[in-house]
Amino acid sequence: MGNQGHSSASTFMIREWIDSGAIGEVRRVDCWNNTSYSNRGWPKSSPPVPETLDWDLWVGNAAFRPYNPGCIKRFYGWPDFGTGTIGAWGTHTLDASFWGLQLGAPTSVEAKATSDHPAGAFPYGVMIEFNYPARGDMPPVTVAMYMGKMSADMARPKHLEAARKLAPKGGQVIIGSKASILAGRWCESARIIPETKMQEIGKPPKKYDRPIGGHFGSWINACKDGGKPATSNFDYAGPFTEMCLLGVIASLCPGKKLLWDSAKMKITNDEEANKLVRRQYRKGWKI
């Protein structure tokens, strides 16, 4: 999986700070991103399909629709083809939290969303909360994503100094009982806040080996005989993607608390939402 931030020293430090107990118990994570990967409705014009493009193949198993060149660049803004802002950024911004807090599958997810988007597109703004039970000696935790038009709705982090500003494009804060960790959208530039705590605690004890050659080196080494698994291997990336895709479903069903049974891959309390877990294939494309 291409969440390249997982191979960064910053992501490893976040995990090591959490493991060491430097910030105390974590019961909430907030992340924000002002990007809105939505669209303003399917283009009405339908120019001729280029000879170099098999449009039927491009549409794939989704419901067929007329060709428009604009949809190819912005495929991620339509639920039939992409996963919106959550899919684009969730696996980057939430990476260190998912790993460091050993999250796995949430038990429930709930979203609030703006309502000014056209039918068949993702909301322009969304706030999603994932709820997790206790994990070993870690307490229950809520992970929240504030995206697009709702990115500014996030409360100011309690450990953030009055003079410090949050990055407008996006970032994350892992809120502990003693201090918090502030990092960027790719989990980069992680620091403990307030700064007085950063100076007191410093870098965490090194517990995990960093990949040689970064993200690309990790992948190349994993391909070789006897190489270590990649830092973002399938056994990690699969459950992480599951979390983010649940957020996508919640964004399309705002105002509902959806209960998730990971073992059965099923939303147990809302049949309409559960229909979104598996795609409806158009004729000729069913596997």
Describe the fold and architecture:
With 287 residues, the protein is α+β, with helices and mostly antiparallel strands. It has one domain (4-39, 52-274): Dihydrodipicolinate Reductase, domain 2. The chain is built from 9 helices and 9 strands. It has helices at 9-20, 55-59, 69-73, 84-93, 95-100, 195-201, 214-223, 234-252, 271-274; strands at 26-33, 108-113, 125-132, 141-148, 170-176, 180-183, 191-193, 257-261, 266-267. It has a 9-stranded mixed sheet with strand order 7-6-5-1-4-3-2-8-9. It starts with 8 loop residues before the first helix and ends in a 13-residue tail after the last helix. The mean pLDDT is 93.
What secondary-structure arrangement, pairings included, does this model have?
Elements: H1 9-20, E1 26-33, H2 55-59, H3 69-73, H4 84-93, H5 95-100, E2 108-113, E3 125-132, E4 141-148, E5 170-176, E6 180-183, E7 191-193, H6 195-201, H7 214-223, H8 234-252, E8 257-261, E9 266-267, H9 271-274
Parallel strand pairs: 1-4
Antiparallel strand pairs: 1-5, 2-3, 2-8, 3-4, 5-6, 6-7, 8-9
Keywords:
single chain; 287 residues; alpha+beta; Dihydrodipicolinate Reductase, domain 2; nine-stranded mixed sheet; 27% helix
